[in-house]
Amino acid sequence: MKTPFRILVVIICAFFMQLVSCSKKHDPKSTTDIQLDKLRANWKATHVTSDGVSQDGYANFVLSFTGSEGSKSFSYATGSRPFVSPWEATGAFSFDTSKPAEILHRDDDVEVNYTVTATTLTLQFNFSGPGYVSGRASSLTGKWIFEFQKQ
After folding, report:
1. Cα maximum dimension of the chain
2. Using CA atoms, how far apart are residues 113 and 100, in angstroms rounded to an integer?
3. Which of 26, 88, 143, 148 is 20 to 30 Å from 13 by CA-CA measure?
4. Which residues of 126-145 are buried (b: 16+ CB within 10 A; e: fewer)?
């Protein structure tokens, strides 16, 4: 009688151990981490407009995002900017706390609406005032739309 009882106890223990191991829930990624995964790449500009007018000088413009999951902010760097640009050479972004999958905040207080897929990125923002140039400024006020392809 002891052998069938021991086998039953082993089966019951194995069953409960399986239940416990299956019930472990992995913490899902936060929305900001999911979005950062999508953004973290090099993006090449394909079309740029300001107030609906196509802008020259962005044919080789590249925007790169870097950052670590769980951080509140992440960095960007630009390459091949035109002489005057609404972008600094480098800076940081943070996700909007209420709409992290739609809105970013640049460290120069510019709010950026964005949409990102596996291969495309669109950034829209209003920029007012001077653009960023080595020691000079020129007015670049307007609604800017940047369309990118992932490199």
Report:
1. 92
2. 10
3. 26
4. ebeeebbeeeeeeebebebb
d(CA 106, CA 9): 61
Q: Give the three-state DSSP class for 34.
A: helix
Q: Which amino acid is at 123?
A: L
- Of residues 99 and 137, the one with the higher pLDDT is 99
- pTM for this structure? 0.79
Q: Nearest-CA neighbor of 76 among 66, 61, 84?
A: 66
Sign of CA dihedral 42, 45, 46, 48: positive
**Residue pLDDT, tens place only, 14-46:** 565 565 555 456 678 999 999 999 999 999 999
Q: Please give the DSSP secondary-structure letter assigned to residue 61.
A: -
